[in-house]
Specification:
By secondary structure, the protein is α+β, with helices and mostly antiparallel strands. 29% of the residues lie in helices and 37% in strands.
Length: 292
């Protein structure tokens, strides 16, 4: 591989509610030390995708480094769809599930080395009702939690823990789900149905032990348990995925999920309203990402 000459640095200043200066400065220093031109861009939440596409056309960078969470990475991936560019992840959001799944180190210098020079994986994405998901989307309890967290004033782990308690004390009743995949139909009561391209939530909890990001399949993980205590363990990051009567996993390339009532829905840590019909299909090898 030729030496890198130019990279874009996309910074989401509000992701995760923490200061990005340290990561940004470390990135600039690293690039300067390697003789790489780094073009910096801060997202505003307005017209970011077209701005990133324009920057790409103007500078033709070999890599785009993203300082933010899963939502920012996904936005950048959609902006550069079908362009031959590698995305380097510098996790700094409230949801960093993708960086957990990519097994990125916590050491900033190591993460920079991977972002600038790491190997490349061609990663799958999942299309749900026309929207793209990089790693984990779901309907039910976890999406309720994200809705409550987004509506609260307290950010970070404390805010998340408080909303977990609120969500579990005011839990919506179970819903009836009908899942059509691989030529079969499953009907069940459920608290949560996960559409998983990868294995773990940003909390570190493994929800989909069989997940691989580049195998051309996604998994549907059905959590049937009605036990509030077990659900609390799942959404706060300690799940025993050994009780088979509580959990069912289906591997597939496409699926249709319908529910008897509108249910809270989230994609990659972002609340997307209530849905009662999810059409899901695999997008094989959609994004090039730097990995250790």
């Amino acid at each position: 591989m030729d030496a890198l000459k130019k990279c874009l640095l996309i910074v989401n200043p509000i992701a995760g509610g923490n200061d990005k200066a340290e990561i940004v400065n470390a990135s600039l220093e690293y690039a300067a030390g390697e003789g790489i031109k780094l073009i910096e861009f801060e997202t505003t939440g307005k017209e970011d995708e077209s701005a990133i596409r324009s920057l790409y056309k103007e500078h033709k960078p070999e890599r785009i480094l993203v300082v933010g969470g899963d939502g920012t990475i996904k936005m950048v991936a959609e902006a550069v769809e079908n362009l031959n560019v590698i995305i380097g992840v510098l996790p700094a959001g409230s949801a960093n599930g993708l960086s957990v799944d990519l097994e990125l180190p916590s050491d900033i210098q190591e993460t920079l080395r991977i972002a600038f020079h790491g190997n490349v994986m061609e990663m799958d994405m999942v299309c749900i009702n026309g929207k793209k998901s990089l790693h984990l989307s779901d309907i039910g309890v976890n999406a309720e939690l994200i809705r409550n967290y987004e509506g609260s004033n307290i950010r970070g782990k404390l805010g998340y823990a408080l909303q977990a308690i609120n969500t579990l004390t005011g839990l919506e009743p179970p819903f009836h789900a009908k899942i059509q995949a691989n030529g079969k139909t499953i009907e069940t009561e459920a608290r949560m149905v996960v559409i998983a391209n990868t294995q773990r939530y940003g909390t570190g909890v493994t929800i989909n032990p069989v997940g691989k990001m580049d195998d051309g399949k996604f998994e549907i993980v059905i959590l049937k348990s009605m036990d509030v205590f077990l659900i609390g363990k799942i959404i706060t990051g300690n799940i025993p995925l050994d009780s088979e009567e509580d959990v069912e996993i289906i591997s597939t390339e496409e699926a249709l999920i319908t529910t008897n009532v509108p249910v809270c829905f989230q994609i990659d840590g972002e609340y997307c309203g209530e849905e009662e019909r999810l059409e899901i299909k695999m997008l094989h090898r959609q994004m090039k990402v730097a990995v250790p």
